[in-house]
């Protein structure tokens, strides 16, 4: 958001001067005249440190009132950067105020011409934005302002003329109409109102189109800056950050429409390409397009044989910062059946709880949705196969005395795991324990995790919120890696391997340099983790004991 905008000039007698600013007083102090008081001109460097004096008034009139607002920064300190020395002119510059609160963005322009005093006209249109704001979108605005008004000055002396009918600074104005007083009659928009409209339109609408005079219009638009998206690999899993189906229309690219229809937060890129009947390259290109506009994010494939470890963000989860544990519960808990003898409709739809989405406070996960086939096949039990008695006598039903009459009421009020148990589940992931081992540990402790928690969603939530990270698995052949490092070997083709008497080249050899994770091997070789490990035991590309599996 633009905090202030200004137009500065270098005057031969006064030095750097703020000619116009919006809002008033954002750069240099201004005073508000009384009812019958003449306006006070903008202050310059020479009188910034002096006290604000009242302007000359007519006899019997009131004096000026105090300044409207305090400046955003000390103009006297930054004035030498508003109109800088010669090497910094005609280029984009950014300056941080001494308090490190604001950025001043400018493009000082110098127009050499013998018609000007000192043979040069120097000005600068600048913006003031918060230090934390991304300045990239505003750079184009500053450049456009400088280029537009520089051209207008060269053509008609727009800036070198005063805003009123005062004497011009240079010999522009031949051929222009004059009024009865002999002054120049300038039918143009004042700089002050122009800056105010630019600031308000860019802040409110992100664009502006303002006629300056009969021949010139200022057209600008703020374009958000998006960095180049990362490469999309075939083993990545795209997860939507918004409901893409609600914004897709018939005018979208057909390939993109087919790809979006298959994004469910579970399928990897290769599977999406197969299900959408689209080539893998086009699928990756479509997903990069969605990544560019920050509508999806990429995760790793979820395996029960994978390992996850906590990150520093786990401390915020433990402290329940911004209600993150409650947000997690809404997303991952599938809930036990809420039995109530007086209201059987409560559990008439056993899958309704498995499709719970995040609350409105979520910014990254509020649109995750999972089909019943992918989320509830191991999470819900048909109510026709359960009675209240068998439900409450379940040996791992947590936290309630099955023989207590108040237990039923408690279950009715709270059908999800308590926060402390969700924290316990999240904090027990370690790099040396697979998800399957983590699950078995809690099952042995008497907590039926699968009955109340979607494990995949729990892991996804932890990764997205910065609580967990994936510990990848790599295979390394010491002999093959040494030969690659010394340049004595290279990856042989099938024909070269056969000509050297080695028979067929082992298909896993290219993955044994420590740069390819098991996710890549599983996806490209179309094998399971167990099958990859079994094939590595009979690996023909290295002697026995040469291979090592690394976790990092």
UniProtKB/TrEMBL annotation:
<protein>
    <submittedName>
        <fullName>Nitrogen permease regulator 2</fullName>
    </submittedName>
</protein>
<feature type="region of interest" description="Disordered">
    <location>
        <begin position="345"/>
        <end position="388"/>
    </location>
</feature>
<dbReference type="Pfam" id="PF06218">
    <property type="entry name" value="NPR2"/>
</dbReference>
<feature type="compositionally biased region" description="Low complexity">
    <location>
        <begin position="349"/>
        <end position="388"/>
    </location>
</feature>
<comment type="similarity">
    <text>Belongs to the NPR2 family.</text>
</comment>
<dbReference type="InterPro" id="IPR009348">
    <property type="entry name" value="NPR2-like"/>
</dbReference>
């Amino acid at each position: 958001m633009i905090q202030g905008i200004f137009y500065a000039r270098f005057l031969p007698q006064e030095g750097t001067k703020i000619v116009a600013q919006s809002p008033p007083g954002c750069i240099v102090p201004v005073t508000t005249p009384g009812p019958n008081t003449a306006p006070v001109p903008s202050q310059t460097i020479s009188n910034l440190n002096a006290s604000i004096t009242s302007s000359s008034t007519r006899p019997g009139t009131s004096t000026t009132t105090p300044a409207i607002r305090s400046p955003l920064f000390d103009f006297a300190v930054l004035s030498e950067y508003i109109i800088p020395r010669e090497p910094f002119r005609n280029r984009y510059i950014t300056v941080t105020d001494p308090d490190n609160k604001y950025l001043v963005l400018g493009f000082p322009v110098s127009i050499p011409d013998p018609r000007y005093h000192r043979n040069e006209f120097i000005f600068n249109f600048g913006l003031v934005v918060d230090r934390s704001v991304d300045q990239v979108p505003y750079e184009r605005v500053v450049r456009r302002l400088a280029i537009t008004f520089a051209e207008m000055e060269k053509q008609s002396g727009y800036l070198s003329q005063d805003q009123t009918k005062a004497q011009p600074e240079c010999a522009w104005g031949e051929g222009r109409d004059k009024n009865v007083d002999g002054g120049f009659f300038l039918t143009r928009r004042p700089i002050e109102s122009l800056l105010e409209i630019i600031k308000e339109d860019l802040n409110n609408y992100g664009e502006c189109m303002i006629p300056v005079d009969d021949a010139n219009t200022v057209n600008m638009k703020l374009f958000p800056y998006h960095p180049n998206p990362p490469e999309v690999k075939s083993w990545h899993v795209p997860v939507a950050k918004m409901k893409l189906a609600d914004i897709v229309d018939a005018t979208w690219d057909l390939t993109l429409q087919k790809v979006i229809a298959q994004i469910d937060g579970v399928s990897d890129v290769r599977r999406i390409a197969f299900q959408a009947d689209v080539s893998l390259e086009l699928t990756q290109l479509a997903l990069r397009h969605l990544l560019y506009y920050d509508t999806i994010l990429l995760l790793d494939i979820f395996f029960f044989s994978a390992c996850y470890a906590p990150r520093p963000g786990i401390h915020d989860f433990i402290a329940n910062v911004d209600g993150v544990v409650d947000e997690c519960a809404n997303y991952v808990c599938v809930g036990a059946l809420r039995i109530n003898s007086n209201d059987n409709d409560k559990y008439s739809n056993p899958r309704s709880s498995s499709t719970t989405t995040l609350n409105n406070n979520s910014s990254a996960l509020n649109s995750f949705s999972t089909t019943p086939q992918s989320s509830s096949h191991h999470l819900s039990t048909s109510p026709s196969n359960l009675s209240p008695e068998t439900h409450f006598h379940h040996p791992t039903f947590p936290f309630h005395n099955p023989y207590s009459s108040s237990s039923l009421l408690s279950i009715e009020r709270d059908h999800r795991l308590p926060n402390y148990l969700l924290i316990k589940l999240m904090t027990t992931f370690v790099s040396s324990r697979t998800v399957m081992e983590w699950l078995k540990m809690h099952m042995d402790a008497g907590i039926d995790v699968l009955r109340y928690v979607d494990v995949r969603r729990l892991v996804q939530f932890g990764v997205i919120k910065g609580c967990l990270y994936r510990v990848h698995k790599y295979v390394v052949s010491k002999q093959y890696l040494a030969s690659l490092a010394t340049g004595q070997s290279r990856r042989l083709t099938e024909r070269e391997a056969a000509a050297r008497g080695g028979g067929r080249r082992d298909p896993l050899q290219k993955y044994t340099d420590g740069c390819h994770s098991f996710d890549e091997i599983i996806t490209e070789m179309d094998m399971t983790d167990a099958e990859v490990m079994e094939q590595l035991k009979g690996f023909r590309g290295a002697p026995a004991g040469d291979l090592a599996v690394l976790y990092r």
